[in-house]
């Protein structure tokens, strides 16, 4: 496969909650920092090429802050869909990649964002729910338990021992042997449907020699 000449980038504007998806020429991105603005003018995604990495400043719809994220340049240029996520909510906040996968991932994030409460109303002491969607989370956890009970979860390091951490809208599986991690989204019905199709969960840890 040859290098793509353009990349699609997307995020959801924290102010107006529109999806912002643009196609950018790789050479112009590399030449100068790009400021990708929401049509409402209140947020922008900044993309900057550093010597070995690409640095992005992403407005986050889930927590309302900006996230500083980066990835190796080759990943930015080649991956079908790279996802950057919000550390405090576990939701994705930005995608980079090919047109189809980026549009699909963004559509899915829109569904999750629809479940976010109005941030303004949460400030007057109303208790924040522990999960974005408790029903989906419960189902995802029970599905993970089922897969584990069948012996379907393992790590490429050869270990079958793992532990997990439950986040706001995802579950992180961790190999207790090598520390490899895998994030399972638990935000929408599609996330659950994806997980239900799986018979095994494979953590990508150290390859066994
Ligand atoms: Zn906007
Ligand atoms: Zn965030
Ligand atoms: Zn492992």
Tell me what the structure shows.
It is a single chain. The longest helix is centred in the middle third of the chain and has 17 residues, at 99-115. The chain is an alpha+beta fold. The strands form 4 sheets. It has a 4-stranded antiparallel sheet. The chain has a 4-stranded antiparallel sheet with strand order 3-4-5-6. The protein folds into 2 domains: 6-122, no CATH class; 134-203, no CATH class. Helix 5 (134-149) packs parallel to helix 6. Residues 120-126 have low confidence and may be disordered. Helices cover 27% and strands 34% of the residues. It is built from 6 helices and 13 strands. Strand 3 and strand 4 form a beta hairpin. It is globular, with a radius of gyration of 18 Å.
Key features of this structure:
single chain, 209 residues, alpha+beta, four-stranded antiparallel β-sheet, 6 helices, binds zinc ion
């Amino acid at each position: 496969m040859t290098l793509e000449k353009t990349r699609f980038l997307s995020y959801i504007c924290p102010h107006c909650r529109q999806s912002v998806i643009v196609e950018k020429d790789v050479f112009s991105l590399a030449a100068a920092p790009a400021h990708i603005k929401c049509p409402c003018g209140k947020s922008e995604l900044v993309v900057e090429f550093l010597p070995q990495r690409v640095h992005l400043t992403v407005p986050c719809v889930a927590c309302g802050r900006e996230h500083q994220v980066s990835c190796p340049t080759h990943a930015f240029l080649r991956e079908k869909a790279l996802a950057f996520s919000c550390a405090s909510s576990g939701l994705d906040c930005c995608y980079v990649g090919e047109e189809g996968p980026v549009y699909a991932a963004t559509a899915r994030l829109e569904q999750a964002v629809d479940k976010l409460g109005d941030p303004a109303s949460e400030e007057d002491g109303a208790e924040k729910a522990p999960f974005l969607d408790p029903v989906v989370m419960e189902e995802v956890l029970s599905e993970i338990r089922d897969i584990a009970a069948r012996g379907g979860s393992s790590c490429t390091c050869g270990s079958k021992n793992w532990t997990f951490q439950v986040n706001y809208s995802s579950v992180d599986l961790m190999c207790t042997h090598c520390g490899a991690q895998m994030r399972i989204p638990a935000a929408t019905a599609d996330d659950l449907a994806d997980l239900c199709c799986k018979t095994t969960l494979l953590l990508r840890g150290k390859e066994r020699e």
